[in-house]
Amino acid sequence: MNAPANRQWKLTARPVGLPKRSDFAFETAPAPDLADGQILVRNHYISLDPAMRGWMNDGRSYVPPVGLGEVMRAGAVGEVVATRHAGFREGDFAVGMFGVQDYAAADGGGAQKVDPALAPLPLFISTLGMPGMTAYFGLLDIGAPQPGQTVVVSAASGAVGALVGQIARIKGARAVGLAGGAAKCRYVTEELGFDACIDYKTDDIGKGLSKHCPKGIDVYFDNVGGEILDLCLARIARKARIIICGAISQYNSTEAIVGPKNYLSLLVNNARMEGFVVFNYAARYGEGLHDMAGWLKSGQIKSREDIVDGIETFPETLLKLFSGANFGKLMIKAV
Amino acid sequence: MNAPANRQWKLTARPVGLPKRSDFAFETAPAPDLADGQILVRNHYISLDPAMRGWMNDGRSYVPPVGLGEVMRAGAVGEVVATRHAGFREGDFAVGMFGVQDYAAADGGGAQKVDPALAPLPLFISTLGMPGMTAYFGLLDIGAPQPGQTVVVSAASGAVGALVGQIARIKGARAVGLAGGAAKCRYVTEELGFDACIDYKTDDIGKGLSKHCPKGIDVYFDNVGGEILDLCLARIARKARIIICGAISQYNSTEAIVGPKNYLSLLVNNARMEGFVVFNYAARYGEGLHDMAGWLKSGQIKSREDIVDGIETFPETLLKLFSGANFGKLMIKAV
What is d(CA B160, CA B167) in angstroms, rounded to the nearest whole number? Predict the structure, then answer.
């Protein structure tokens, strides 16, 4: 066959502050030829995640930065349209780090087959994908909430936060969320069943936390960093666990990162702050997927996706994450 | 008998910045009458510890603040000179939070008998006392260094730091210290057997850490906070453990506490920062004392005390801790 045209977003400059369209190039190339053992995937949904901002920076991290001139790294779910791998057939669906492009070549290790009969495709990059595993292992493995304890999560209407609170409730803990705006807060309490949600745009956050966490915060799942992390640190209970999953308030800062000035609260409360990268749990994803799929089926977990049409919108769509304009798991529909 | 005169240092003002003589009153009162179940202790050695600075502040912490007008809280070791408690005889020795004064009345729960034949009295408030237990449980329970791993400790010639490095070595780990001045650094490497010591007053601390921790820092036992904490965070290994034991660089700050701006290093390294208050390990002190006494006896652990004569010197002697002028465990000889 003639190689189909492959539109690709390449990183061409290291962003300073918020990423701009000019930090990327939107190019078209023929879809890649396959080597033995590879598959060609037509991306259907491309995941946009806060972590992508970190991957654009130079410097040592848990994965190498995206090189200048390389296709922007992103998780995606798509259809196998050509295969030189015995384990995949045309028409199969797979997830992997397929990048912000129409077509990706992947080897067997870089693609996981998924069953589209099990759930709608977008779920494989949300509740049954990286955000789901992040919420599951971060909360349960590091946070380990006990029945009756209070779990606070920021970005509570977002891909990870929404799941954290719902899993906390399933485990018998109380869930208190932080989200921006009345609509999101209503969604968090009424649809997702959190015990409370604080509107960080209009409420006094400290007062809200004190009111809804009268015995202190046992687990804080931090997606944002900055002031909210400090306000939570000031209200932790003895032996509290703070999961550092992200710091979206800091990712685009052009000044020095602001450290948590209340960190000595860890000392007086014998408490713990622990960083978390979901990729280190790859060997245990099966366990997480099993539970998450069960909870989805039983209706104990709800999932909401914010799907934007068209790969050409990538730079602007990505910014929705940093302004808080997305409502649910943000992704691009690529086909 | 006539009650002996009891000189006492009382906290009379909440210090702003470094404590001053005028924040205390030096008064003389008769030694207290004993109630049933109490003992009267003549303090011999009074422990001066960085934590005392925190106890002078108002606000929620792991122990209530010292009230204005109350005798300044301090650990001490002394002789039982009168007793209305069946478990203590005159001439016994005991440790407890006996305060900065000549005589203290204590009940059975507030005093632990010690055997002066086992070790010189000062050791019961250093290696066999709170600093010893702090080093032991903080390092082993939270830090859990494995053979061949690298343990970094600040204030390495101090009461706690010196023990942390020596215990790390006993457990087969490498020990890298930070101390102020050539004499202290020499002591840390030559007397205590650390693998290296960085002079924070004259060396480039970051370069020193990189040089002596080529595979990164597995355990950082933090007694100081501030810049050194950030420099260590920037150099942690995967799954590193940071023990927040103190933050002496911040205790007298009149500005906001400086938080660790490199805390996101916890995220990318799946690492952990955990606060530590030794009092929570009270039920396990026996275990720590057994090991520490054994290591002292076998010569695997050395102890150094900085003993200042005279309870009347208290406010000025205390300041040695914050200028780094003490060399070894600081205490006042009260008799």
Answer: 11
Residues on chain B touching A268 (C-beta within 8 angstroms): 60-62, 275, 277
Residue B139 near residue B221 (C-beta atoms within 8 A)? yes
Query: Containing H/E element for B159?
Result: helix B159-170
Q: In this prediction, what percent of chain A has a pLDDT beyond 70?
A: 100
Chain A touched by B244 (CB under 8 Å): yes
Domains (range + CATH), chain B? 5-126+304-333 (3.90.180.10), 130-279 (3.40.50.720)
A23-36: average pLDDT: 96
| Contact status of B257 with chain A (Cβ, < 8 Å) | yes
pLDDT recorded at residue A1: 56
Is the Cβ pair A275, B277 closer than 8 Å?
no
The DSSP line for B2-41 is: PPPEEEEEEE-S--SSS--GGGEEEEEEEPPPPPTTEEEE
β partners of residue B8: B27, B101
C-alpha R_g of chain A: 20
> CB–CB of A244 and B230 under 8 A?
no
pLDDT (tens digit, 9 = 90+) per residue, A118-136? 899 999 999 999 999 999 9
The answer to whether the Cβ–Cβ distance between A275 and B260 falls below 8 Å is no
User: A43, A32, A52: which is closest to A98 by C-alpha?
Assistant: A43
Rounded Cα gap, residues B84 and B90, in angstroms: 10
Q: How many CB pairs under 8 A join A and B?
A: 108
Rounded CA gap, B305 and B327, in Å? 7
Judging contacts by C-beta atoms under 8 Å, the chain A residues touching residue B256 are 261
pLDDT tens digits for A286-327?
999 999 999 999 999 999 999 999 999 999 999 999 998 999
CB contact at 8 A, B247 and A264 = yes
Instruction: Give the contacts of B70 (CB within 8 A, at least 6 positions apart).
Output: B10, B11
Burial of B207 (0-12, 13-18, 19+ CB in 10 A): exposed
Give A83's strand partners: A39
What are A224's two structure tokens? Answer: 């944002």
Check CB contact of A138 with chain B, cutoff 8 Å. Answer: no
A274 and B CB contact within 8 Å? yes
Whether A256 sits inside 8 A of B261 (CB atoms) is yes
Average pLDDT, chain A: 94
In which region does residue B216 sit, left (phi positive, over 0), alpha (psi from -120 to 50) or beta (all else)? Answer: left
- Give the other-Cβ count within 10 Å of B47's Cβ: 26
Chain B hits for A256, Cβ within 8 Å: 261
DSSP A71: B
Average pLDDT, chain B: 94
CA dist., res. A26 & res. A312, Å (int):
8
Q: What is the ipTM of this complex?
A: 0.86
Which residues of chain B register pLDDT less than 70?
A: 1
CB-CB under 8 Å, B260 with A258: no
Per DSSP, which regions of A16-126 are E strands? 24-30, 38-47, 76-83, 93-96, 103-107, 112-114
Chain A contacts in chain B segment 55-84 (CB below 8 A): 60-62
B152 interfacial to chain A (CB closer than 8 Å):
no
pLDDT, one tens digit per residue, over A200-256 is 999 999 999 999 999 999 999 999 999 999 999 999 999 999 999 988 888 777 777
Q: Residues of A with CB below 8 A from B277's CB? A: 267-268, 270
Is residue B86 within 8 angstroms of chain A, CB to CB? no
CA-atom Rg of chain B in angstroms: 20
